[in-house]
Amino acid sequence: MSVIRSVFSIFFYTINTLFWFVPIFICGIVKLIPIKPLQKLMSWTAKQCASIWVTFNTLNQTVFTPTKLEVTGLEDLKLKDWYLVIANHQSWVDILVLQRVFNRKIPFLNFFLKKELIYVPVLGLCWWALDFPFMTRTSKSQLKKNPKLRGKDLETTRKACEKFKEMPVSVVNFVEGTRFTAQKHARQNSPFPHLLKPKAGGIAFVMQAMGEQISKVVNVTIHYPEGIPTFMDFAAGKVNQINVHVEVKGVSDDLIGDYTHDPDFRVRFQSELNRLWEEKNQTLANLEQK
Fold this sequence. Notes:
Layout: H1 2-30, H2 36-64, E1 68-72, E2 83-87, H3 93-102, E3 109-111, E4 113-114, H4 123-129, E5 134-135, H5 140-145, H6 152-162, E6 170-174, H7 182-188, H8 201-210, E7 216-223, H9 231-235, E8 241-250, H10 263-288
Parallel strand pairs: 1-8, 2-6, 2-7, 3-6, 4-5
Antiparallel strand pairs: 7-8
Helix pairs in contact: 1-2, 1-4, 6-8
């Protein structure tokens, strides 16, 4: 039965994606014409198409993978606000969960992606047309060899965020920087039993570039009671329940500042992020005990 579910589920994911790829990609091409009102209209149209794409993905999940989603904390969300969404990251299923939970409750989710992902067939071009920022992260070793690269990440983020100032958007950041595994957790010697260490740079740069526009931080905790699933587990209907806890927070002064050049602010920012991560770890611990 699970094999049949996965075959039909993946088939409809594929058909749905290929269908909506066409209008989204066309919008991306038309946006290359340097006429601002036209670009704004095409951005809006592309995001509307993407929202419908997510709606049909959700319908697919409802029919073929009837996973029960237990969601709390959606009461204070609006469709016409700017949000920074932060979440723990365990599986590719996280992205489907976030899209399903927030579709048409907040502006369409824009993820910061590694630049290599633009080469993913079909989806890479969709992400490009939807203005997903493709990032090149500068490692500490690269900075050591070439200090001139310092600040390049911020400049890339600032350019990406310029596109987000025209209309409300939800910027998503998986703060751990990678998916959780027991091996990575042990290698990091993470102080958070259920989480990897949070990385401040990504969201610090977003807040530095867009702090005046971001109205709320949406702190999302995703919990899989039966263990972390793969996408194939999800497509086969093997995931019976997913818990999603949403907490909407105001933007405090500790989150806005010059992360690149102000060492005192960097310390405050990381401290605030660690505090949020302690709360998230406790939320996961509470969900484990249910």
